Amino acid sequence: MEPRVICVLLLVSTLALSSLAQGQLETCVVDPHKRTNCGSPGITPSQCKDKGCCFDNTVRGVPWCFFPVAVDNPPEGRARAALGGLKV
């Protein structure tokens, strides 16, 4: 690989790991009746994801495009898996 490509990959990896290390993980696993609407009726999955939101149209009568929820203290196993096996 070119040195420029390696530098970009290193920068992206560093930024991703720093945000994970701060405990700012989010999840789209939300009780359907506790979802907070993030889109308008008729929003497509790609439009929803472009807004940084979650899309799940499997439950009728609840928002399909909704905000993810923060995971402040993920279980150690999930945090380690998210960081590629590194100890946190």
UniProtKB/TrEMBL annotation:
<feature type="signal peptide">
    <location>
        <begin position="1"/>
        <end position="23"/>
    </location>
</feature>
<dbReference type="InterPro" id="IPR000519">
    <property type="entry name" value="P_trefoil_dom"/>
</dbReference>
<dbReference type="GO" id="GO:0005615">
    <property type="term" value="C:extracellular space"/>
</dbReference>
<keyword id="KW-1015">Disulfide bond</keyword>
<feature type="domain" description="P-type">
    <location>
        <begin position="26"/>
        <end position="69"/>
    </location>
</feature>
<dbReference type="InterPro" id="IPR044913">
    <property type="entry name" value="P_trefoil_dom_sf"/>
</dbReference>
<dbReference type="Pfam" id="PF00088">
    <property type="entry name" value="Trefoil"/>
</dbReference>
<keyword id="KW-0732">Signal</keyword>
<dbReference type="InterPro" id="IPR017957">
    <property type="entry name" value="P_trefoil_CS"/>
</dbReference>
<feature type="disulfide bond">
    <location>
        <begin position="38"/>
        <end position="53"/>
    </location>
</feature>
<feature type="disulfide bond">
    <location>
        <begin position="48"/>
        <end position="65"/>
    </location>
</feature>
<dbReference type="InterPro" id="IPR017994">
    <property type="entry name" value="P_trefoil_chordata"/>
</dbReference>
<protein>
    <submittedName>
        <fullName>Trefoil factor 1</fullName>
    </submittedName>
</protein>
<dbReference type="GO" id="GO:0030277">
    <property type="term" value="P:maintenance of gastrointestinal epithelium"/>
</dbReference>
<keyword id="KW-0964">Secreted</keyword>
<feature type="disulfide bond">
    <location>
        <begin position="28"/>
        <end position="54"/>
    </location>
</feature>
